[in-house]
Amino acid sequence: MLSKNQIKLINSLSQKKYRNKYNLFVAEGIKVIKELLNSNYELELLYSTTDVFYVPTEKLQLITEADLKKISKLATPQIALALFKIPEKSETMKAVNFAVALDGIRDPGNLGTIIRLCDWFGVKQILCSNDTVDCYNEKVVQATMGSLARVNIAYTDLYETLKNTDLPLLGTFMDGENVYKTQLPSSGIIILGNEANGISPTIESLASQKISIPQFGENQSTESLNVATATAILLSEWRRG
Question: Other CB atoms closer than 10 Å to residue 171's CB: what's the count?
Fold first, then answer.
């Protein structure tokens, strides 16, 4: 049975300040938990309604479905919830020849999907501005479906980091070059901006090339693509080239 203190702790991790305080984040569901268990993430404690995970006995607490509902943030709780330790956060970019940079992405679902897309297309590095949503937000973790374990994510002063790289910087803009008619470099950093405002002027000033995804539909009231959808198209084009 879960104690009141356990319930209070787990529910508090919905807020970034408590994730930072306790150095823990929440993962839910069999797939996500198993992916993280098979990674470098360190398990703090696993709460499960059934023993289907290969974890040390002292790291497992069997609970009832009623208890799981008290701590789950899912509409339909998925058997288990785990607490993992947040590793020391990276502020620098790994030595890679291709990366994605995110300037002010705020929606957890978008960030989670972008992390999953980077995993799919073999992008090992994401650079996030400090005002991008926390990658350990439970909605982000859920949306990654475990890809969080395979992509390095650094929160940094994005302007300074991009200013000091030798890689080409490809900014995404509505008035950029048609990505389908542009030869993309084999190495570089693709920059994607905030859902409402796009790439900030300071980051825009660093872009060595501006690219866009052209609109083919006749309905001009469709102003822009969802940022995660745009990421999928751009990474696909990069890999195709």
Answer: 25
Q: In which residue are the tokens 């030595």 written?
A: 95
State the residue for tokens 């049975």: 1
pLDDT tens-digit series, residues 14-39: 999 999 999 999 999 899 999 999 99
pLDDT tens per residue, range 93-137: 676 899 999 999 999 999 999 999 999 999 999 999 999 999 999
Query: What is the residue type of 43?
Result: L
Identify the H or E element spanning 9.
helix 4-12
Strand-by-strand arrangement of the 24-28 sheet = 24-28, 80-85, 43-48, 60-62
In the block, residue with structure tokens 């620098």: 92
Report yes or no: 19 and 86 within 8 Å, Cβ to Cβ. yes
Nearest by Cα to 74 from 35, 29, 109: 29
Q: pTM of this prediction?
A: 0.93
- Residue that has been written with the tokens 């947040």 in this structure: 86
Gyration radius of the chain over CA positions: 20
**CB atoms < 10 A from the CB of 109, how many?**
15
